[in-house]
Amino acid sequence: MPATIDGDEPLSLWLLLRKITTLSLPTVLLQITSLLPFPLTTLHLGLHHPPLLPPYALSNLTGNIIGVMLIVGSLTSLDTLLPVYYKSKPEKMGLIILRSVVITMTIVLPSLLIILVSTKTSGPLHSILLSVNVEETLISNITIYLHYFSPSLIFILFSNVINKFLLAQDVAWLQVWVGGFTVMFHWGMLKVYVGEEGDDSVVGGDERVMERVGMLHFLTPTVEFSLRLFAILILRPHDPSTIRTPTLSDLFIPQKDVVSFTQQLVISLNGILSLSEWLYWEVLTFMISSLQDNIEISAQAVVYSLIPIFYMLPLGVAIGSGVVVGQKIGERREEEVRRCLRLTGGLGIACGISMSLFCSIFKTPLINTFTAQPEVIRTLEKIWPGVCIFIFVDQNFAVNGGILRALGLQSTMSKYILIMLYGFGVPLAYMVVIKIEKGIEGLWQMMFAPYIGLIVLIARKWIYVDITEVMDRLNKGEEGPEQNGDDRHGLLKHFNDNDSDDDKLELIEGGDVEMIDYK
């Protein structure tokens, strides 16, 4: 039976592909604009303040591990729950958001305190960085940056909440414009505020520049949050029925028609675990930094900035495909689900080939965009074949991982990541980089190996998965208008089809829910 969108109208593979890309385009652009400030700073420092590229790279990694990653992971509960409640009980969206903010703040607050109580020469952050063999001079600049950057975690949190609230209501393009303005603000401030090497406005040396970089990374999310808040309060593109302020007592009191606080906490924690591949990257970069070779750290910083940009294409394919697969699961059309999965797997291969070739063909301009240091350029040229191979593998990982999320198998994916990346990848990297002393060149010779094993496990899972069991699990065996696409996450279980007031909410068994993966 050919794939369809509505009713029994046939849908060709070309139309299915067009539907996936149409759904993906604004989300991909939004993710790119959210990501770009960090590569732009890497580019600016690499060209104008090369000595600051290593401390900035490690500052960015540290901020990700103890702040940004926790926020993004915890807020995946909103990715899962807000679209469901917008279709069923929009007046409950405020309660879901309030709970998510409380959970995320509780998780992030200890990290924020660790940063704020640390100094350049003492404190918990100083001890943590020393334990992974980071140089004292780097620790000083890292601490300076994080002291200015860390308060922005609050604005990052609330900016992401508004973003997810609007996306749940299909308000995407307005967000893209906000992101585009934020990127232009950041780029302009790099030129005007941070300044260039030899600029008379930069007084006080490297520490002063790091202060300005940290302050800029505080200002950028603040501007983004302000614009999104303006959109909510003035432009009001959302459904007014979704704005209903809950009471604090609603936070913990179980309600029969809404997911419990404990269940939402589980979703948030699973969301953080689902981003463990992001943490794997941070571990490898700190492994390179332990060699205390600033040239290799700078080269790793350039690659670390490029890989996520290439990742946006397969991420968009995964998001678009997840929507279509979810609709077909809700309609209980097994053959069409399989057809979409096969198409998505093919798109992953196409993305990998195209991006890997692009990276190989445009090697010189890509490298020269981020650095002018001859030693860093030579190091990047040595590792570039490994980078191109990894991009092919990484693109396929992104798409195959998206397939598992569309099937509600996040727990399975997390287990595979723990086995292949942490059980196999980290020990292999440690042996190659530290024990055999091959450094960054050895790292990028082996980088693709654990990912190939990971892709094989993921692909085997979705190729042989029992689609009927998946549909039963996500739809909870229920049939009716509620299951015709609107409840594709399988969170709503209707015990009484004739009395919607008695509807109850359950998490699917095992805590498997759909989440978007941000790298």
From TrEMBL:
Instruction: Tell me which GO cellular component terms the UniProt record holds.
Output: membrane
Bias (Basic and acidic residues) ranges:
476-497
Transmembrane residues, as ranges? 20-41, 61-84, 96-118, 138-159, 171-194, 214-235, 265-281, 301-325, 346-363, 383-404, 416-436, 442-463
Region described as Disordered: spans on this chain: 476-505
A single GO molecular-function term is:
antiporter activity
Q: Which organism is it from?
A: Triparma laevis f. longispina
**Which keywords accompany this UniProt record?**
Membrane, Transmembrane, Transmembrane helix
Question: Which InterPro entries does this one have?
Answer: MATE_fam
Q: Name one Pfam family in it.
A: MatE
For this entry, the protein name equals: Uncharacterized protein
Q: Which protein family is it in?
A: Belongs to the multi antimicrobial extrusion (MATE) (TC 2.A.66.1) family.
